[in-house]
Amino acid sequence: MINLSKSLFTLLAIASLSGDLNAETALKGQWLTDLEGQTLLDPQTSGVTYRKGELVVIGDQSAHESTRMKLFRIDPATGASVTQPIQITVAESLKNSCFYGYLSDKPDFEALTWDRIDETTLITVTEDASAYELSPECKKRFSQTNSTSYPSLLVKIQVDNALTRAEIVAVRPVQFPLEAKVGNFPNDGIEGLAVDDHQNLYLALEQNTANRPQLFKTRLTQDFWLRDNFVKVIDANLTFPVLDDKDHPINGIEFLPSPIKGHPGYLVAVARNDDELWVFDLTNRIPPFVQKLSFYVSTDDSGLCPAYEKLVQTALEAITIHDGTVYLINDPWKQHYTDNIQCGTHVDKFKRMSPLLFKMQADPRWFTPFRAKSQTALPALSGLAALDQNRYLAVQDKKIQRQGDRLTLIQLNANQQLTAQSLFVTNWPAGQAANDLESVCALPGKNSEFLIAESGTWQGSFGRLFHIKVFPTYAQVLNTFELPVERDNSPEQDGDNFEGLACAKKDVNRYLVILGERGTATAAGFLQWGELDLAAANIQWNSQKIQVTGPTKLKNRHYNRVISDLHLEGDVLWAGAVLDSSDNGPFASAVYPLALVNPTAKQPISLMAERPVLWQIDGFKVEGLASPSPLVPGSALMMVTDDENYHGQFRPLAITEQSPYGNPSPKPATTQ
């Protein structure tokens, strides 16, 4: 019987590591014990944080009198106390505070964290203060909570380095946004606190007037605890799982750093009624991951009971995370905790309302910054490069003020069905996303590495060339270089507009980089090149420019942008040219051979004397060219469009009789 039960538990644990997103993760609990080895007597554990190798635990106002208003220091490996509980006192300096009477009596502490800067600063929050009332003077100052009559309080607990004393030294009342409709529910308030790597403090609300949990945030500024006015929190704007009309409160949250450099991280929330963890990506690009849990406690080896009993009522409320280990502690619900008494080996522990510690490792599935889905429409795309035989990287020319991703991964399946996914980019320099990306080229010999370029500078800013690496679900900036500047863009003048980019290998870690300036209706475009040394993290731009007037022998067509993209196929440098009338069109495009390229030559670019239009595409604005895919027989090049208000298209260009593919290349001009 014992072996059978242990096997069952093992199977449950294995199921949690499978690919089944609905599989439960089975967790075995350890009883929290005091210095004498007895389980803790009804501490009503509502918050926990990790500090200097220990778990620090706090309880709410319904705890037993002997364990109320105390901090417990717990060994995370064993669940055993390492010292006597530390009494929480209130500083004399707060005696004139509006909230002293409540804090010095039976405050309902519901969470515990620290500010990520000073380990002697712990932060908790109060919930139920329905038995207390503010003085008339204090009501004038703090009645506008937009929630409960008595405000929720953020409380600073100062501890010493050795954690032998704990004192409340500062308090701030919370004001919720009126539009959040939090409601006056004293026992359904803030139950979770977490601080991220950027000093954002997140607050988790159990439920609002719509019977829904909510997440809010504020900033822990340097003067946060020096002020005594309202903390005005804002909605964290995070998408929740799909919920029904039943109760789904959040009773604890913790920040989880991302293993991806530059990613803002995650909030892991305890949904106690559901026995689930909700993992919120702070970019809010995807729905939260829902991790289903089940909880077990070992019995004995008598053979009279199963080796493990599944808890029927757990009531998780406390969560903290350290080095990838998630620590969870329950807050025994007095009305139902004894429902867990089954075989009889833990009757005394359940009756003492003794909490349990559960541990698990962060699941790698939590860190997926994109969950693929098919898209029926593409955004406007301004550059294209092949990642492999059936995948392409495209860039978007979003200006800095526009939110959202700048990269799109396009995939062709064997049946030529198109799938596109947006790629999150980490490690933008100074956290500043790209402004007006117009071109991309793959670095030959560097697997999944690319250069992407902004169009130019704007009032002295931007004008950057990024070296990036593409991973299956995101991209990372490896380095950043400056583009050459001839004319700065500003409200007073049109400056450089580099819309083409091509790369050719010269030597190990050395590349020829070619830029194409688009030109205007009245001014020619030009080609300019430089040498990129990846090992030295340096690029040297040649001052020479080759003027480009677009395709030759045009018939009844004038293209006001003679370079809309560049693509190097073999030694042939291809270019696009476009007629761009307005964001609503009409558009017309041409694709033509522009030059021959020899990356090791002193003069690496030879402009072609004859530059015929080999493809004329009416109605579309071609801004990206790339190598053909073997999945599309008969294709000569792939293209993407930036059709402005009409979004974008991804299409093959068919081999024609005039195409140089399989035919002699056009002859270069003898002079520039």
Annotate the secondary structure layout.
Elements: H1 2-16, E1 25-28, E2 30-31, E3 45-51, E4 54-59, E5 70-74, E6 86-90, H2 100-103, E7 113-114, E8 121-125, H3 136-142, E9 153-159, E10 166-175, E11 190-195, E12 200-205, E13 214-219, E14 231-232, E15 234-235, E16 252-256, E17 266-271, E18 276-281, E19 289-298, E20 308-310, E21 316-322, E22 325-330, H4 347-351, E23 356-361, E24 383-386, E25 391-395, E26 407-412, E27 418-426, E28 437-442, E29 449-454, E30 457-458, E31 461-462, E32 464-470, E33 474-482, E34 498-507, E35 510-517, E36 525-533, E37 538-548, E38 561-569, E39 572-580, E40 587-597, E41 605-607, E42 615-618, E43 622-626, E44 635-641, E45 650-654
Parallel strand pairs: 1-19, 6-10, 10-14, 27-33
Antiparallel strand pairs: 2-23, 3-4, 4-5, 5-6, 7-8, 8-9, 9-10, 11-12, 12-13, 13-15, 16-17, 17-18, 18-19, 19-20, 21-22, 22-23, 24-25, 25-26, 26-27, 28-29, 29-32, 30-31, 32-33, 34-35, 35-36, 36-37, 38-39, 39-40, 40-41, 40-42, 43-44, 44-45
Number of strands: 45
Mean pLDDT: 89
Q: Spans with pLDDT under 50 lasting ≥5 residues?
A: 1-20, 661-672
Major sheet details:
9 strands, mixed
Structural class: mainly beta
Radius of gyration, in angstroms, nearest whole number: 32 Å
Strand content: 35-45%
